[in-house]
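Input chain follows. Return structure tokens only.
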Amino acid sequence: MTGYGRGSAEGDTFSVSVDVKTVNNRFLDVHLRLGGELAPLEPAIKRQISSRLSRGRVDLTINLEKTSQTAYELNRPLIAGYVNALREMQTEFGIAGELDINLIARLPGALQPSRDGLSDDVSAGLEKALAGALDELERMRAQEGEALRQEMSERIDKIEALVPLIESAAAGLVDAYRARLQKRISELLSRNGQLVEIDHGRLAQEVAYLSDRSDVSEEMVRLRSHLIQFRDALNSSSETGKMLDFLLQELNREANTTLSKSTDLSMKESALAIKAEVEKLREQVQNVE
């Protein structure tokens, strides 16, 4: 589900702002953009996010500004390796000159903020700013979620309205099969100009067999049950995304079975319409937690 939130916090020696945005994703996928100084806090930041969100791609940016002097420490192994390599280059190739401290200072990672420079106040401020950003994000997502719930409910209404049409068409299949068979048999038997009496008992057996093969009453009962469960899940305050995914699979299964059993055009059209609504619901369910 898409959304955006921003939070900030200030202290005597710092100010921090947090921007967080989410887009649709079946799983929780967190991407952080923060400075190396904040790297030790990355696990705590991800835990705070996962405690509030369960699905979606999350992009989070943290901007930390310190108003007091920042202490730096040398990355001694990196600098030593660089200096040794330069001196080895001078010796091997006979290159004159002195090492330039400005060049070494610009070496990526040579100077790093002191690990002791991240105070408890900064950590607490960051946590507060992130909480504020997540609060704003959830308010925006809640508004979108309500609109999404209404739209999905309308699609469920459309599917529910198609069930009586299928049941009504199925109720007339027995008479339609009987009339079709009787007409076809009569045509075949009267080709030589002589009428032959039809065995109505045998005809009834064939009609019963065809009717049994095309009976969709069980499919409609299960479909109605799935629709009720889908509505309950939509109105639930708990996480229902996976439940809705499963129910849509079952709705699609019942529609496919109805299509395979029926030879009636109106039943096929209704089953295809159900499948179309299910596909649209599948796209929307990816946004639901």
